[in-house]
């Protein structure tokens, strides 16, 4: 063989092994509750990373025109309908489930039976499916899985958890049941406790941390914001890009290298007053006033600062955005979306 042919042959072999590796390692991913605040962004990320054909986004609502333009596969799927989910998993050869369907803290308090049904029965269905079809499964938890008896600054991974919202109660159950399925049945269950997530292009679904998204819209539109939490209410928060990257990084991490199945992750903590002061650097005549509602009691029972040292140590979690970067990025994104 000439040296040129040898080089060519080596090149083909190298590319071929790359293709094999990619095909083997690209999971086919199903997202439930995918049309909420977090789902569309994660679907984009997965589509870019594993290929458009490898993501199926599901929910019980109709996708808007903006989402449809992206060309992401969408199917109607109620997490209470086990048979339909079984069909989707088999027909679409699903490997991973990211289970986002849930009622969040504030809406959960307004409809406890529905929160129990979606957050408990729906979640149980997902774990059963993971067991039945040998799927890797991600179910997020939240800072809301802690309560007033937990140490609040900082809040470690393993401590007292006595949440006072139905949302928190159902999320503690999800953590415990997932860990039970991992131990008893070998299900590859993974769970991250997210702080309040802040994003520009998707609206939050009815949580206690939603003020920290609406404040940006109002700063640009009316330059006035009415805040339902007291100025000194400190809560852990995170920019959406860090949150979505954490899901991919954590899901790809080798199972045998994870010392836990449930981890806290954190990026920053701030109060409404601190966020307002940072926003004022961009909108100098922005005004805030405070009209406290029932969400204050929820926020007062949640962690102020999240201790995520185990995630940083075990799977190298390292968020990119702090408060100044987050505010800068939110304004850049929102101005482009609103054509300002
Ligand atoms: N956004 C945040 O700040 C945080 C979110 N999380 C968790 O991340 C996950 C995703 O959160 P978001 O996207 O913000 O929630 P979201 O409230 O924006 O979206 C939830 C989605 O679930 C869907 N859903 C409701 N009932 C359903 C059913 N029966 N079957 C299928 N889908 C149903 C809704 O239509 C909605 O699109 C949730 O589990 C939440 O607890 C955790 C901590 C913080
Ligand atoms: C922190 C959360 O889980 C959510 N954003 C909520 O406020 O309910």
Automatic annotation (TrEMBL):
Q: Which residues cross the membrane?
A: none
Organism lineage? Eukaryota, Metazoa, Spiralia, Gnathifera, Rotifera
User: Which EC class, in a word?
Assistant: oxidoreductase
Q: What does this protein do?
A: Catalyzes the NAD(+)-dependent oxidation of L-threonine to 2-amino-3-ketobutyrate, mediating L-threonine catabolism.
What's one GO BP annotation on this UniProt entry?
A: L-threonine catabolic process
Instruction: Specify the protein name.
Output: L-threonine 3-dehydrogenase, mitochondrial
Q: Which InterPro entries match?
A: Epimerase_deHydtase, NAD(P)-bd_dom_sf, NAD(P)_epim/dehydratase
Q: Which Pfam families match?
A: Epimerase
Annotated organism of origin? Brachionus calyciflorus
Q: Which reaction does it catalyse?
A: L-threonine + NAD(+) = (2S)-2-amino-3-oxobutanoate + NADH + H(+)
Q: Where is the NAD-dependent epimerase/dehydratase domain?
A: 29-265
